[in-house]
Design a protein that fits this description.
Pectate Lyase C-like, 39% strand
Amino acid sequence: MSCWNNVWQIYFLHKFEVMIRRYLFLIFVILPLWSGAQTLYYVSPTGDDHNDGRSSGTAWRTLFYALSAASPVAAGDTVWVQAGIYAGEHVVVEKSGTPEHPVVVQGYGQTPGQDPGFDFDYGDTLDASRLPLLDGGDRSHGTAIDLNGAQYVEFHNLQITRYENGVIDDERLSNRHIVLDRIYLTELGDTLANYSGKAIELKSSDNIIRQCVVVNASAQGIYVEGERNIIEDCKVYCDDDRSDNAAMDYYIVVYYGNDNIVRNCYVERIGDLPNYGHGIGAKGDAAHNLFENCTAVNFRDEAFYVRHRGAQHNRFVHCTTRGITQESTGFVARDGASYNSFDACIAHHCKRAVQFCDSDEDDGAQYCGRYNRFTNCIFFDNYIAIDFNDYEEDTDVDNNAFYNCVFDGGNTLVNVERNNYDNLMANCIVTGFVRLETDSNGYTLNFDFTYSDFYNNGFAMPVGTGNINADPQFVDSTLNDYHLLAGSPCVDTGTSNGAPTTDFDGQVRPLGNGPDMGAYEFGGQTGVVKSVEQDMVVYPNPCSDVLFITTTASAIKEIRIFNSAGMDMTGFIRMREPEGNLQVLDISNLTSGVYWLEVSGSWKMFVKR
């Protein structure tokens, strides 16, 4: 018996030892992976890639090494990159994170984790003492950051200049989850080469581009393909006129992708540049994308656009375009783009507020554009309101509709340079136009006008059911406040057939016996704030990053902004040079909330989204 007892004791001791070893493996190997343990690494202009990178005193020298396969950086780790110049870096990302534990690259000033207090915008100079600056030294060569198929990687607080390309991802893969946050890019692309200079190009899905600023990328500012990408609070500018190829072509474009969101973005073509420019839009097979609260300024080709037959079911909501030159073009549907919607959008001081045209880009001409819908839009002080333009192919434009829009002031309501039929205008207000149509190619206007008010125009009211010819009684059309006064003949006189269910302010329609004509339902919220003491309007309201102020006064002497607690926030806004009676405020640095605007002693309230 004693012999068998010894055998069993040895057996159980062996089993117990095996079990202990397994548990120790779980405790010391697997458990740290579950706990999401994070290692901090450091990169510094005075570092050395032979260091261990574990402290600011033993930092690496290059971001290239930190994100290479040779470094120890793993999922969940953060790489802190100190301010300074990183000359000639060409970073190829060979690290990936996981959904719970991304790899994070974080630029900083002198103390990791401290707010660098640097907010770059047009007119500012990149500052390597505030944030790390990747300087390629040659606009005709190289890429600053090649994402190289990486997943779950975040970049925060970096400056990039003088490369051919900024941040590039050429692989069309889903679930990439790249985050680009506060990346400032300038002077990209060979100014003598054709289509050189891409600031940000992501061809994958599930990425976020946030608070990035691009100035002078010769080919394109921000470009995305794929699904479910988000571009928000970004700005793209160009003022480079040194050559025909220097000026930017596409500012923000969604190309071949669905369910992407472009929100609170601002783009501007500054000056009369050789490239007419494309502002913000959808191209190729880009469908079901949302463009919201965006602003585009001074685009001759197209400020907001949908182009090609695959560009369908895209939505533009509360987007504003402003022309500087007489050649500016606002909202464009072209090359067969169809079933897109534009709601509560504004175009002013453009040569063409809305344009339909066609080219041979999309495998040959078939039709121009159809079933596009404009609702609650405001078009004022445009030379041509609706342009059936003859560029380039002779195809039809049909079945597009304008509901509850305001057209105020211009030379021509509809320019007819191509065959058109079954287009509709209903519940609209048209005032101050010289002529109904112009016809340079012998085409006839085929447009149904119903339940609309035609007042103070240089042409007779068009024949159509429910049309009227009466003063719409705007609150103040001289200051572009198109809310209706009590007693307006446009109240309750529209048709519910096809009408939008809300107005420009988001107020439910109808509030009375029927929908009103025009962009605003009488009795709803006030979307434009008018001063009693001074003839002035601020719009749009609510707003996103840009607030416009118009006034009959010759100049605005002083502007101050206060939050709801009474704190002076004026230092957080930027004021562009006034253009006549128009003042443009950049309020992107303000957080969402209610604010008070003091202008030369008068007070107005506005809401920042």
